[in-house]
Design goal:
heterodimer, A: 351 residues, mainly alpha, 16 helices, 4 strands, disordered N terminus, disordered C terminus, B: 290 residues, 11 helices, 2 strands
Chain lengths: 351, 290
């Protein structure tokens, strides 16, 4: 076909679709090392180190769950504290009242949060965009006020979980908490990353880019959003269970506090919304700043809010997004790349 | 029976305050498509500014409005020009997140500056004066003032939108920002004016809130949620619907409080959810083109 050849004088080399980058292969090794480090913490580190690691890991999981919902699902929520609170109160209901092993209750919290999220999404999805965001917040307030009216769950002043948690021997409890937190922190990254690289992830990124266009090519937009909401709720529920396993006292005002959402939102915005790496970077910045500004009290949140607004104005893709724009690194590549088989990477950007 | 009438009367007067909260929120949404998460915190900020004006000048809370309204309106203008204008786009979420950040800043800033102590704007005799109604009922003068303020504000806004050049510019910028700019509406200025109007209403809401009940820095978010619920219950885009939404919410809360003090706010939330479940367009819907 000489005519065809003339039209495209430089036919591409034999090529393959790759799903990894050099950074992702290095990242996999690094992640394996970090995972081993976290799992071994109970054997060699101070209790305070372990507590810090636990908090960092569950905060990372929260940020990943919010990023999945808002950054990929396009559903900005100010109400994920609802599922966190439900997770905490699962611990009250199952362990304190029924004597279930606390670790089992933490795992059950995921199921409870997911089961309650299902009817809630049917109701709230009638609202869109910013209205959905405020609607989720109202829903969290509904549960905060409702639980405050149930004396059996401690009412408005809350209840101590000490007697429920003390059934586990101290050493076992500390180690189990670290391992659960590790499971959550690493698991959240792995789940979000895995989801995004799957067929489901393709649908999700399509929805993120244009809801109307993806609907028109047959993506079941409502169903995908529904499942994203459920997964995110389950993740937040797990975190809630774990948080109150470590805090030993729960009250509706603390468990359903909007401050949880503020933490998630600020971390994801500062780190980079709509990337797997962003929440990791954001979590590190969050804890770094907290150590620096520990003496400032309420001012710390003012600084964090101002930083988030500054990032929204100057670098809407967050710290990681700006880095990617400049250096084209992808530790968690969710896009497919065309690579020529002679080993050179295609000139196409690795998107 | 008298008890029921009394409860509903209280609910109406509480609802009038909520309608006023909601009006400020819907001005910003109507013109800029901006859902201002910091709305409630700005209301509380206005209460604190009034407190400061009263301390400095020795006037009562209502006269302090002469200073608080211009201060808040100016703040609104600058906020829109300097910050919000930069994040407004077809995607409403960046602006939403920025106002969320603003909310956290205002709330914690107030906490740091003014402490967590509860305050009240002392309105002297106005706070306790009441009118006797036939049938042994009594109605406070203050709630009547609140109701009057709500009605007057909504009426004036309707006049502003319907019969003035500024109002026409608001509507033009709301319907089609690009085309409005083409025919010579200075969009940035008009948006900033709309935010100034919204914050003027916020100033009035904040002062009335402070006279009506105690306040502290943490009160903002719940005021935002009441305003939001009033807008959705009433039906988006309808000004008088917002008034009806506020009143519905107020009556629901008053009845809830009467049954059990712990159930007041919850009852309001449940009415909101019921409307969302059974009549998602709100009680008095009006499309924006009508």
């Amino acid at each position: 076909m000489p005519e065809h050849a003339a039209l495209s004088p430089s036919l591409p080399q034999p090529a393959a679709l790759l799903h990894t980058t050099r950074a992702s292969r290095a990242g996999a090794v690094g992640a394996g090392g970090l995972l081993a480090l976290c799992l071994s913490l109970p054997f060699w580190s101070e209790l305070s180190t372990q507590q810090f690691a636990v908090e960092l890991l569950y905060t990372l999981a929260l940020a990943q769950m919010w990023n999945l919902l808002a950054g990929y699902g396009g559903m900005v929520s100010i109400g994920q504290q609802l599922y966190l609170g439900l997770g905490g109160y699962t611990l009250v209901g199952l362990s304190l009242k029924l004597g279930v092993h606390p670790f089992a209750s933490v795992l059950a919290a995921a199921a409870v949060a997911a089961a309650i999220a299902a009817p809630i999404s049917v109701l709230l999805f009638r609202l869109q965009g910013p209205y959905l965001a405020v609607g989720t917040w109202v829903m969290a307030e509904v549960f905060r006020h409702a639980i405050a009216n149930v004396p059996a769950l401690g009412g408005g002043s809350g209840v101590s979980l000490t007697s429920a948690v003390m059934v586990i021997p101290d050493a076992m409890r500390d180690a189990g908490t670290v391992w659960l937190a590790t499971l959550l922190g690493f698991g959240s990254v792995w789940v979000v990353y895995g989801l995004l690289r799957s067929r489901f992830g393709l649908a999700l990124t399509a929805i993120r880019d244009s809801e109307v266009a993806s609907e028109s090519v047959g993506v079941p937009v409502r169903r995908v959003k529904f499942w994203v909401h459920i997964v995110s709720a389950a993740g937040c529920g797990l975190v809630g269970g774990l948080v109150y396993l470590t805090r030993l006292r729960i009250s509706p005002d603390a468990a359903f506090s909007v401050d949880w959402s503020a933490t998630m939102v600020f971390i994801v915005i500062i780190g980079g919304i709509g990337t797997v790496e962003g929440p990791i970077v954001g979590t590190l910045v969050y804890f770094g700043l907290r150590e620096l500004l520990a003496d400032l009290g309420a001012i710390y949140l003012v600084v964090l809010g101002a930083l988030a607004i500054g990032v929204m104005l100057r670098a809407p893709r967050g710290l990681w997004g700006s880095l990617v724009q400049r250096f084209d690194v992808h530790v968690f590549p969710v896009r497919r790349r065309l690579v020529e088989l002679d080993g050179r990477e295609s000139r196409e950007p690795a998107r | 029976m008298i008890e029921l009438v009394d409860t509903i009367l209280q609910g109406i007067l509480l609802g009038a305050l909520y309608a006023l909260f909601a009006t400020g929120l819907s001005v910003a949404f109507g013109v800029m498509r901006l859902v201002n998460i910091a709305h409630g915190d700005l209301i509380v900020l206005a209460s604190y500014i009034s407190l400061a004006v009263m301390k400095l000048t020795g006037v009562g809370p209502l006269p302090s409005l002469l200073a608080v309204v211009p201060i808040m309106a100016g703040l609104g203008y600058l906020l829109q020009r300097g910050l919000l204008q930069r994040v407004l786009s077809r995607d409403p979420l960046p602006a939403l997140l920025v106002t969320f950040g603003l909310s956290v800043i205002v709330q914690n800033g107030l906490l740091e500056l003014c402490s967590a102590d509860t305050r009240r704007l002392d309105a002297g005799r106005l706070a306790s004066a009441s009118l006797a109604l036939p049938g042994g009922l009594a109605v406070g003068v203050l709630p009547l003032v609140v109701l009057g303020c709500a009605l007057a504000t909504i009426g004036l806004l309707q006049l502003l939108l319907g019969f003035t050049e500024t109002g026409r510019a608001f509507r033009a910028a709301s319907d089609d920002p690009e085309m409005a700019q083409v025919v010579g509406v200075p969009q940035r200025h008009v948006y900033a004016l709309a935010m100034a109007v919204a914050c003027g209403v916020v100033a009035l809401s904040g002062v009335l809130l402070g006279i009506n009940s105690t306040f502290d820095p943490s009160l903002g978010p719940s005021r935002l949620l009441f305003a939001f619920e009033a807008v959705i219950i009433g039906g988006m885009g309808s000004v008088w619907g917002t008034l009806a939404g506020g009143l519905t919410l107020g009556i629901a809360q008053a009845i809830g409080f009467r049954i059990d003090p712990g159930w007041g706010i919850l009852a309001g939330h449940l009415v909101f959810l019921a409307v969302l479940g059974f009549r998602p367009v709100g009680l008095f819907p009006r499309t924006r083109d009508a």
